[in-house]
Amino acid sequence: MAFALVAHSSGDPLHNPGKSAAAGSGWPARRLFLPLARLLARKATQRHARARLITDRRELCRGRLGLLSALLAVFIPHASAVEVSFSRVSEGVYAHIGETGARSYDNQALNANIGLIVTPAGAVLIDSGATFQSAQKIHAAVKKITPQPVRWVINTGGQDHRWLGNGYFATQGAELIAHAKARPDMQARGGDHLAALTAVLKERAKVTVPMLPTRLIDGDDASLELGGMTLALRHRGGGHTPGDMMVWLPAQKVLLRGDIVYVERMLSVIPESNTRAWLAAFEVIEALSPQHIVPGHGKLSTLALARADTADYQGALRANMKKSVDEGLDVSAAVRSFDAAPYNRLLNAAELMPGNASRTYLELERE
Ligand SMILES: [Zn+2]
What we know:
- The chain has 2 domains: 2-75; 87-366, Ribonuclease Z/Hydroxyacylglutathione hydrolase-like (Metallo-beta-lactamase, Chain A), CATH 3.60.15.
- It has 12 helices and 12 strands.
- It has helices at residues 2-10, 17-23, 27-51, 63-75, 132-145, 160-163, 166-171, 182-201, 275-288, 303-327, 331-337, 349-366; strands at 87-90, 93-96, 114-119, 122-126, 150-155, 175-179, 215-217, 221-226, 229-234, 246-249, 254-256, 292-294.
- Strands 1-2-3-4-5-6-7 form a 7-stranded mixed sheet.
- Helix 3 (27-51) packs antiparallel against helix 4 and helix 9 (275-288) runs antiparallel to helix 10 (303-327).
- The longest helix has 25 residues, at 27-51.
- The protein starts with a helix and ends with a helix.
- The structure holds zinc ion (ZN).
């Protein structure tokens, strides 16, 4: 029975005890109840061993252990739940900085940043998270900042964690806004994204339904008046995904930018990406000269940091691949010829660098 208890508490391959012990809100409860639970389990094991040999594993979960498991389930909240919390960026502007690693059961695919703008007439959420349940967590965190309802959600791109939480916010009465180029991308990839998420998030992906935005922004530059605030929207034909759109708050000099800016971690060029449009979007950022940038991924940033971690790398990669295409190098020789050393400091560089280089090469070949 002791074995069964250990299996319950740490045998779950999706559980991450090291991280949750430090960060989980259930930690004091674990400290109190785990020793008690282990003692009870040990005593029960001894009794069982005396009585008979237990061969059916299912029996382990019956009787006293079943009761014990039920008690533990009540007293030990799932310690691997991700925390969502918004920090102040500027007057009325907040950001949740998500994890920089891959999507996981523990982080509920909230491995991206989420923005929040509080107006006198309601809150504007910048991106809705990857699932219905992660959207619920985002909403709970919003409520700690403002009693205003979330009246608008702006999806800054077509990737899962930018919009698959839309369904939840629609149930809260929010209007869903995105660039017109995002919608066909969402339509094409939403089902695959949800299937991939379900494989990782299991029951935490339940109830999620891909819900497309209903208010579409056309063109490169647009302006939205929401709750008495002016939001300037900027689009340059895509970037990480075709519908990437940036939100600029001129009064606060804050830029909230979808996946145009990555800091601390390496950006990801995917088949839907367009690195030429991406760098054109970055030129917009240079011209705006924001005081604060909420990147798509990574910590709250300055323009200098955004330039170093996003534009410098991408500029160098494009220049290298253009030269390679012009000189007739094949793709593998071109990938090898890129001097990656200055960018190995970025998280996830080893995994992402080869794909980024080869996709950029293929794009330049088409140009
Ligand atoms: Zn992303």
